[in-house]
């Protein structure tokens, strides 16, 4: 039982590392977006999903994962847990890690949409308050 909880902890760390990399990518998109326009987050998420599904063996997955983490920029969470992540990547079948990667994308998309709704609501509320 203790082994499963340790492995579960490692998967959670893996998901958080991927989500941090996604946030880095999304932050770059927001910075480049024209004022008043939303960046194409859904399109980017679909592209990430497709890229993961194009991984056809262990090497292609590890190359993709490495590139993805680099594109995300500085990742404090990865730096804090790099030994655990490295061991997890080394000992876990790549197909299983790909599934966890897709779950990380799905979880992060839900969080991004929730944040977007809160930001929109806050903006509308502040406009409503300033109008009165």
Structure overview:
- This protein is mostly helical and 132 residues long.
- It is built from six helices and no strands.
- It has helices at 2-32, 41-53, 58-71, 76-80, 82-91, 94-131.
- Helix 1 (2-32) packs across helix 3, helix 1 (2-32) packs across helix 6 and helix 2 packs antiparallel against helix 6 (94-131).
- The radius of gyration is 17 Å and the shape is globular.
- It starts with a helix and ends with a helix.
- Mean pLDDT is 79; it is low at 115-119 and 125-130.
Any descriptors?
84% helix; globular; mainly alpha; 132 residues
Summarize the model shown.
With 132 residues, the chain is mostly helical. It is 84% helix and 0% strand.
User: What sort of overall outline do the alpha carbons produce when their principal axes are compared?
Assistant: globular
Largest sheet entry: none
The tally of strands reads: 0
Give me the secondary-structure category.
mainly alpha
Rounded mean pLDDT is 79
Radius of gyration: 17 Å
Query: What pattern of helices and strands is seen along the backbone?
Result: HHHHHH
Write the layout of secondary structure elements.
Layout lengths: L1 H31 L8 H13 L4 H14 L4 H5 L1 H10 L2 H38 L1
